[in-house]
Amino acid sequence: MKKFIIKIHKMLIIIFIVIINSINPIICSTSAYNQTSTRIAKDRLEKIKENGVLTIASSNDIPFAYIDPNSKELTGIDGEIITEVAKRLKINKVKIVVVPFTNLLEQLNNDDSIDIVVDGMYITDERKKEALFTNIWYKESEAVIVPKISKINFQKDLKNAVVGVQKGTVFLDLAQKLKTEGLVKDVIIFENQPELLFAITTGKVDAGITDSIVASYLISHDNNLYLKILSPYKPISLGNISSAVRKSNVTLANAINQQINEMKQDKTILNILQKYGLTIDYFVSVKEN
């Protein structure tokens, strides 16, 4: 009987050892996975600093983030803000990759060479499903552009107008909503801003809905555009502008947020906005974030 008990005891020990050896690799593997995931989240900023280059994706839209045709340097409101952020993070260079506006967030998530999207992008609930947005940089709204001589003189005149809008922007949703409500006659979609402006100029559409910042800047800087901003006009789509990183790049977003907050406090962002003809109405304080 005693021998039988000893035999059972030995068998139990062997089974216990087998179970422990089976569980241990799983525990180790899970632990290693968690450590790797954490490292991925932390390492994007480290990688950028090691390479000395922050790569942004933009549709090269004036006046947000674009290559100046004369200096060949990144410029624009967002371009100057992100360049200053990089400088404060001790990153030597900001590189731009030109991507159609509609594809910016998709490209961010599928192209590992891109670090951040910077292009006058509204923060929306739908876009937050795709990316992690940094703190608000500034705010804006839509504007309606019409020819200088136009049958549209008041906001109510739009109900008889064919309106143009750029694909992939929040203004497309707004235009379609206005059509559903009978506040515009029809909506035509264009691939980019130049196509939209050309359509308004040539009468293909009666008016265009776009960024108020884009409208103000382009019309004031290009005397060849025989266009004006509809006024008086009460904006409907009020929004906040920011940059976007991958959802896993929390460390990078936090580092950018810290610099953005400091640049608001020392008036750097306000100065950049005013440089491009924008008033304090476009400014968003740290507290407002």
Task: Explain what you see.
44% of the residues lie in helices and 20% in strands. By secondary structure, it is α/β, with parallel strands linked by helices. Helix 1 packs parallel to helix 8 (250-265) and helix 2 (77-88) packs across helix 8 (250-265). It starts with a helix and ends in a 14-residue tail after the last helix. The model is unreliable at 1-9, 12-20 and 23-41 (pLDDT under 50).
Short précis:
The chain is α/β, with parallel strands linked by helices and 289 residues long. 44% of the residues lie in helices and 20% in strands.
Task: Label this structure with key terms.
alpha/beta, D-Maltodextrin-Binding Protein, domain 2, 6-stranded mixed beta sheet, 44% helix
CATH domain fold name of the largest domain: D-Maltodextrin-Binding Protein, domain 2
Number of strands: 13
User: In CATH terms, what is the architecture of the largest domain?
Assistant: 3-Layer(aba) Sandwich
- Distance separating the two termini: 77 Å
CATH superfamily of the largest domain: Periplasmic binding protein-like II
Q: Categorize the overall geometry.
A: elongated
**Poorly predicted ranges:** 1-9, 12-20, 23-41
Number of domains: 2
Task: Count the DSSP helices.
Answer: 9
Provide the CATH top-level class of the largest domain.
Alpha Beta
Helix-strand category: alpha/beta
Radius of gyration: 27 Å
What is the element string, with H for helices and E for strands?
Answer: HEEEHEHEHEEEEHEHEHEEHH
β content, as a range?
A: 15-25%
Overall pLDDT score? 88
Percent range for helical residues? 40-55%
